[in-house]
Every structure is written in structure tokens, then in C-alpha cells.
Write a structure and sequence with these properties.
- InterPro entries: GlcG_carb_metab_protein (IPR052517), PduO/GlcC-like (IPR005624), PduO/GlcC-like_sf (IPR038084).
- With 159 residues, the chain is of the alpha+beta class.
- The protein has a single domain, classed as Haem-degrading domain (Beta-Lactamase), CATH 3.30.450.150.
- It is 41% helix and 17% strand.
- It has five helices and four strands.
- Strands 2-1-4-3 form a four-stranded antiparallel beta sheet.
- Helix 1 packs across helix 5.
- The protein is globular, with a radius of gyration of 17 Å.
- The termini are far apart.
């Protein structure tokens, strides 16, 4: 038996998970900022990996400091809950027990502007935009995802 070969069944103890690259995160962030500038709005953009760890964060001039946290929260929520923050808000509104359970959780937010990054049918990260209206924030995120072909319908999730 080869000592370097994995034992039979060893792979059942490991989960491989795709995640957005730092280069793609920077590209998405830049595209969202470009879209905001074209719309004439100032925003903050955050991009996180599949685990919700920040890879890109940029605040446009004139955007209030607290907006940075909102952008991070939107990106985190979209990545970890596998749905847009808008859809997550609808889900929370329809389930009082879920709303109570998640009310004190850090980084969970239901404001529009966070979208999951989807590649090959798998959630690989999240993008959050904050600083304009919810519709404008989401439009910036959606434009960035569309430009790189990283949008789409996330897989069904129980949450």
C-alpha cells in the first residue's frame, strides 16, 4: 500500500468548497463602484468569500463611516444565508421565531443591497453595497455580478 495515498473513505471527512478569488472580488468591487458613479450615487462596496471573510472593501468619498459596516453586513448575509438580503428580509418577516432567533446575531441584515456570488450553481461569496437607496444598492451589486457572469439563482437552501 502506498503510504502517501489517502485511506479508503478518507475523503468523506473533508468538504471541498469553491470560493471567490481575491482578484474576482476586486473586479466585482470596482465594477459596482463604477456603476454607482454612473448612477450618480456614492456607496460603499464589500465583497466577501464563501465563509463571509472580507476580500474587498471600498468607501466612496462622502459616504458616512457607519455605511461601511452595513456593506459588510449585506455581503456577509448574502454569502452565508445563500440569498439576497432582500429575500432574507422577506423570509425573516414571514417567520417570527426566525426573526427573534437572528435578531441579536452579528452581521445579519435584511436591507436590500446584498447579493450572493454564484458560480457553477454554488455560492462562492457575497457582495454588499450600501449608501444609496436599497434599489440603487442592489442595482450596483447586480451590475457587477452580471458583468463577470457570477450572478444567477443560488441553490435552494433551508434558511
Amino acid at each position: 500500500m502506498n503510504a502517501l495515498a489517502p485511506s479508503a473513505g478518507a475523503d468523506r471527512h473533508v468538504v471541498a468548497r469553491a470560493t471567490v478569488t481575491s482578484a474576482a472580488a476586486a473586479a466585482l468591487g470596482g465594477l459596482a463602484l463604477d456603476h454607482a458613479q454612473a448612477m450618480g450615487v456614492a456607496v460603499c462596496v464589500a465583497v466577501v468569500d464563501a465563509a463571509g471573510t472580507p476580500l474587498f472593501l471600498r468607501r466612496m468619498d462622502g459616504v458616512a463611516a457607519p455605511i461601511v459596516e452595513f456593506a459588510l453586513d449585506k455581503a456577509f448575509t448574502a454569502a452565508t444565508m445563500a440569498k439576497s438580503t432582500r429575500d432574507f428580509g422577506v423570509r425573516m418577516t414571514g417567520d417570527a421565531a426566525l426573526g427573534v432567533a437572528l435578531a441579536g446575531r452579528r452581521r445579519m441584515i435584511t436591507w436590500q443591497g446584498g447579493l450572493p456570488i454564484v458560480a457553477g450553481g454554488e455560492i462562492v461569496g457575497g457582495i454588499g453595497v450600501s449608501g444609496a437607496t436599497g434599489e440603487e444598492d442592489e442595482a450596483c451589486a447586480a451590475a457587477a455580478l452580471a458583468a463577470l457572469g457570477l450572478g444567477g439563482v443560488p441553490p435552494a437552501s433551508g434558511g
